[in-house]
From TrEMBL:
Sequence ranges assigned to domain HTH araC/xylS-type in this UniProt record: 232-330
Keyword vocabulary terms for this entry: DNA-binding, Transcription, Transcription regulation
Protein name (record): AraC family transcriptional regulator
GO annotation, cellular component aspect: cytosol
A GO term, aspect molecular function: transcription cis-regulatory region binding
Originating organism: Pseudomonas marincola
PROSITE patterns recorded: HTH_ARAC_FAMILY_2 (PS01124)
Keyword Transcription (UniProt): yes
Amino acid sequence: MAVHSCHTIFAESFFTRNAGLFEPYLSFVGLGDAVLNSPESEIPLSQYVALWEILGQEVSPTIGLQVGISTRSQELGAYGHAVRSAPSMQMVLRCLSRFIAVLTQGTRVDIDEDAKTVALAYQITDPAIVRRRQDAEFSIGIALSLFREVTQNPTLTPIRVDFEHDAPADLSFHRQVFNCPIFFNRPDNRVCFSRDILDMPVGTADTRLFQALEPFLEQQRETRAAATDLLSQMGRHIASGLGSGNVSIEQVAASMRLGVRTLQRRLSVQGLDFSQMVEGVRRSLAENYVAQSDYSFTEIALLLGYSEASSFSRAFRRWHQLTPLQYRQRAKA
């Protein structure tokens, strides 16, 4: 399995099923049509999340939740098949949390329990990805859809849902989907159920299939999780050093308290390329600064380590086929 120089998510059959939705907007985030027909394609997480945000602007402000609640386990590759075939609800929850890196890096899924409730919490951990409402609503929508699928209870209802983003102006679709209290500006995104859910039988359980999938998923998890840890650490150090100019591997190694050769060896083991990592962090931060801040483009160029605004503008057009001004206008429309 190839390892990319940024956090990635596998296309799986999900992109093929939703080709008609995604295809008109792929070029907006620098993606090609190959992701629509190649389940093994790895999509940079920042571009994947940016694609959702564009769909939220161009198609529907609730598109993430609409697609999430209609997504089924078979569209999520081996990860989805393991969740579906797990022999108990405890194992369903364990799979959702433990093996998330097999599907997507730069995220976390935690299971929190107390005496009365069980909650699945989801959050992007990549610090460079800030605009992510649609991904959050898509992911919580999928979680509810999967719980309904494995319990074979299409009316299964949570007791509470939290989102980390601001409340949308229109909550009618959210209320229709969840039919429970919904809270915004929370620390993370989560869907909560009564503990009774743990006693529900898994109607889709297939013990033999689960036993066959689990060793494969463990192997993939170890590989992907190791790369995720290194990517996250380096991403933070690259981001903090961009404003001082060109970020070198020597600077990053020093800030991580590692020798240059040690860092180079770790990159080599994971198949990572330092210059591509710097490019990926620059791109993610550029998208956030342009869309979310009131910084001038000259200020953004300096924050990202460009010597002049024209160099930044050329790079931005290469990434998005849009000027920074066009991208800002689209984001704020």
